[in-house]
Amino acid sequence: MIIAVLGGTGPAGRSLAARLASVGYEVVIGSRSKARALEVRDDLVARWPNRSLHIAGADNEQAAEADLVVIATPWDAASSTAKSVEHQLQGKVVISMANALARVGHEFQPLVPPRGSVAANVQAAIPKAMVAAAFHHLPARELAALEHPVDSDVLICS
Asked: For a Cys-Cys bond, which of 15, 35, 37, 89 suits 31, CB 3.0-4.6 Å?
């Protein structure tokens, strides 16, 4: 199975990509810029030279050809990112891990989207895909600590 992480160049996306690749999945980091995706891929492979990380980098359109797609963009870009690859996502499971949060000082505060939830807005943007929300409460730092298992529950909403 090939898993794409659109928005895979940010902290959450790159950490999830590394975690998935570390347990044997083929992962494609998607970005608006293929060059940026390749740069992040190279950084991840260099960070863990003793691990076999099967990670590729691509633009979002190419990455969205994967079997399963995770949207890991900032919350206010999740729907537009999904919409930009709507054709590739038809009939696929799409996981939104975007949180509606705003940084206030050193903390994050929740925001309420104008309508529904981030995942509901993503679903509205790509009606022929099957959207679920997951991974919202897994810190990027914990996901990126590949030497330790993630010992957390994950709420999945659909």
From this structure: 37
Instruction: Indicate the pairing of strand 26-31 with strand 55-59.
Output: parallel
Look-up of token digits 């996901």: 143
Q: Is 65 exposed, middle or buried (0-12, 13-18, 19+ CB in 10 A)?
A: middle
pTM for this entry: 0.92
Say which residues have a Cβ less than 8 Å from residue 83's Cβ, sequence separation at least 6: 125, 126
CB 55 within 8 Å of CB 17? yes
109 vs 76: CA distance, rounded Å: 15
Residue 28 CB-half CA count within 13 A: 20
Q: Is 106 helix (H, G, I), strand (E, B) or coil?
A: coil
- 56-90 pLDDT, tens digit each: 999 999 999 999 999 999 999 999 999 999 999 99
- Which two structure tokens, joined as six digits, stand for 27? 């992962």
Give the Cα separation of 29 and 46 in Å (integer).
15
CATH topology of domain 2-144: Rossmann fold (3.40.50)
